[in-house]
Every structure is written in C-alpha cells, then in structure tokens.
Amino acid sequence: MSPRFAAPDEVSLPLHVVEEAALEDWRAARPAAEAAWLTATGFAAGLGEVAILPGAGGAVAGAVAGLGTAGARARGRFHLAGIAARLPEGVWHLETGLSGPALEAEALGLLLAAYRFDRYRAQTPLKARFKAPAGVDAARIEALAAGEVLTRDLINMPAADMGPEALEDALFALAARHGATASAIRGYELIARNFPMIHAVGRAGPQAPRLLELRWGDAGPRLTLVGKGVCFDTGGLDIKPSASMGLMKKDMGGAATVMGLAHAIMALGLPLRLRVLIPAVENSVSSTSFRPQDILTARNGLTVEVNNTDAEGRLVLADALALAAEEECEALISMATLTGAARVAVGPDIAPFYTEDDALAAAISGAATDAADPVWRMPFHAPYETMIEPGIADLDNAPKGGFAGSITAALFLRRFAGAARYAHFDIYGWQPADAPARPKGGVGQGARAILGALPGALGL
C-alpha cells in the first residue's frame, strides 16, 4: 500500500526543524523549561539530531530536529526521513522555515520513510505518521511516493515471482487502475510482428518473451517511455560469474522505473498522450540461447553482430525503440540498468543520461536538483561511433577494449531512436546500503527529474 499523509484534521504533535545557525534565537523564543531541557540534553541542532520535548504529566509535547549546516545537508538528502524512525508513535506536523523544493523533498522523504518490502516477511511499520506540510501539493507528493513504491516493489521481487508474465500482469494492473489500455505480443508472434531481437534474447527463457505496451491520454503532446524488462540476466552463453549474477533480479529496473513514472503521470492527470513500451524477457541458458557471433537483424533492418550475449539489454531495447520511432512523438525516453561502466563513472547514486537536445537536458538537470533525484548528463560522443561498427555487420553489441562502455551503449541505442527528441538513462536501480527514505534494495532513479522536466520540455 502506498504511504499517504495523515488527514489534516487529525490531532498532531509539532516537529520543529532548526538549523544550527538559528538554534540560539529559536531556543530563546521557547518556554524557559523547554529551553533549559534542550540545553541540559546537549541539543545542538546538528544534522540528524532529535530531541523529544516533554509535556505535562510525562506526555510527549513534540520534538525538535536538527538540520545542521548547508554544507552538511549537501552530503545527503531526505534528512527528516532519517529522524522519522526515532519519533514516538503518533501523528506529527512540521514546523519549519523550509519552503519550495527543499520542503517538497523532505515531505516526499517522510512518506518514503514508511516504505517496507513485506511480501515475504512481516516488517515493523514506521510508528510516526505525518501531515502534509503547509505549502506543498499533497496530491503530487503522494503520487510521486506511490510511483516510487511501485518501482521498488517490482525490483525487489525475486525473478521466480517477477518473470515476464508477472511483469505483464503488473503493467495490465497499472493500466486498469488508470483507465489506460494495455496489450502484449508474446512468443513466436514477436517474429511474425517483426521484433526479432526481443525474441532472440528471450527465447531460451522459461517464460515466453514479450513486448508490452500501455497507452493513456487522447490529447496533448506525445511522450513515449521505453523500459528494459530483463527479468533475470544470467548473461546467456557468455554466462556471468556468480558474484555478478546475484543482483540480476533488478535487471528489469528500467521497466519498473518507467512504470512508476507512468503512474505519477496518470495519477496527476498530465495533459499528454503517454505510451509505454517494455520488452520483457529472461536472458537464460539453454539449447535455444542466442550465441556469440550470431548476427541478428533488428526491426529497423540494421544488422547486429553479437559479440557478448551479456550485452542483451540494448538488443531488446533496440526493437522497442525502432517501434517507438515509427510513430511521431514529442519526446522519447529510454531507461535501463544497462552498463556496469555507468556505475564506474558515477557510482550507484547518480543516473547518467544522454540527449542531444540542450533544452531537454537543461530541463532534466534543473528538475533533478529540485526533486532530490541526482542525474548527470553524458555525451553522445560521435568519434566513438566506429567502436560499435564491427565491419561484418552494421553494429556490434559489445565493443572490445572496455573503454566508454556506457557511451557506446547509448550510441548503439541512438541508432534505433529515430528523429524524436531522445534521452536515454543508464540507471542502477538499487540502493546498496540503507539511507534515509531509501532502504537497501530496489530504488527508482531519474523518474522525478523527468516528471519535473515535462511541463517545460513539452509545453504542458
């Protein structure tokens, strides 16, 4: 269940939020007994500090949280979410000087602090609940939280319970929830309908490969989202070592993220026409696996030499992007857990993205800052095009040498995206250690940045 704010009329306790520099003046304005209590307990308003304020008869009268300094806050995000778990049970409201994007980010963090993945084991719920802070759009924050919860739940599910069939069910359920339409092309029908690379990658899996589609909205600019839905990736015949295979349930993180983004778009009723395309496959090992040095012909007619069966994500995305390019749209965005090279470049916390459209890039980067959703623009570096041209075929899915792996993957995808305003996100989709509002496990990246960029980018 998606977390929601407490009702405005519920009785609540104040959570005062104070920066270090403002503590002295704030404390001087408080009742003498409260000020003395804070001095006695050594509360200094450092980032993450929290003090419970005593009331009459031993009751809790409220709490005060430290916001530290701007420099300390720059080293993290969702700071109040880290405090939420230390508050007593009850409903709380914020009393803070925060406003604008900073307040919205903290409000979202308070909702996401309640996230628990409890499908397989009961989890201790967050005791504290929160009212929407004054000055924020509660419906928007709740839609963002619900989209993120959907993304996390899908990624956290093990592949035994989140294969192509279950991913299809999840997309159809999302469509039904919002009055959208959904369809699927499965198995050998992929060949008949000219999606040869989706079929080649997924044909060895225990469940038939498929291309999933969702459509919503009948007016406004057209936005197409394409998400990589590799529900488990063994690496194929170029099989991964066990240490590299352990997290491969998250290889459908691109699909999960575009579904969470699609939920937010539809829940907020944005005036656009949305299309979601998800190639859903398992990259498995069997007698029917595609092989190294096979040459595949993509939907758009380009030939691809397979030099590593573990570079399969770009193959299935290529067919989906080729389909997207056959229909005009104002923006085309792909999201994928595509390369380890992206993690080497920017680590697990930042989503690198590629686009040739400077205005779109600026809109995404600006929105990312406001949404506490870090991204970094990377280059479609044209001189590297020769690295993905093997000579025997039009394209190479895994250039040798190991250099610029994220860039060459993005250049590969660009060959299929057509003339639309195109952006590609090479995300990680996983939080490697617990952090405020982000427990270890599946996580969305880039979705809030994209959502924030859409009004300006599409003229909504």
UniProtKB/TrEMBL annotation:
Ranges for domain Cytosol aminopeptidase: 308-315
Which is one Gene Ontology cellular component term of this protein?
cytoplasm
Q: Name one Pfam family in it.
A: Peptidase_M17_N_1
Q: Which CDD domains match?
A: Peptidase_M17
InterPro entries of this UniProt entry? Leucine_aapep/pepB, Macro_dom-like, Peptidase_M17_C, Peptidase_M17_N_1
The UniProt keyword set, sorted, is: Aminopeptidase, Hydrolase, Manganese, Protease
Q: Some GO term, biological process aspect, for this entry: which one?
A: proteolysis
Could you say which protein family the record assigns here?
Belongs to the peptidase M17 family.
| Name of the protein in its database record | Leucyl aminopeptidase
**Can you name the source organism?**
Rhodovulum marinum
Q: Provide the organism lineage as a comma list.
A: Bacteria, Pseudomonadati, Pseudomonadota, Alphaproteobacteria, Rhodobacterales
